[in-house]
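Question (not urgent): is this output format expected?
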Amino acid sequence: MPTATVAERARGYGVETRQVDGTHADAVYWAVRDAAEYVRRESRPFLIECDVPRFSWHKQGQRDIRGPEEMAVLYRRDPVPYLAGFLGYSEKKQARLLDIATAVVQEVVTRARAAAPPMAPRFM
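Got this back:
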């Protein structure tokens, strides 16, 4: 891609954009709210680019080459502790929030793995 960000590329096509820190649920909420209002009012597309850390490898089968220091920086951007702190949760409530989030993700992964593969689109 010849641009530094997806948002920059979209702007080249005349699409309104916003870049947000995807680890901050409140920032994502406000960006989506503003984008939805814009789309309803203008009947034009809007792109939101959320920057989020990737905690696991990029491609299965390839070893992650990031070191412990880099991963420590990424883990400090984990959205669950941010949200818990934003909400003013105690450490006990933060741990409970993390447990709930982990259980929800595990349930979604389990259901996705058990589901039938999607049907391929039919073209004429």
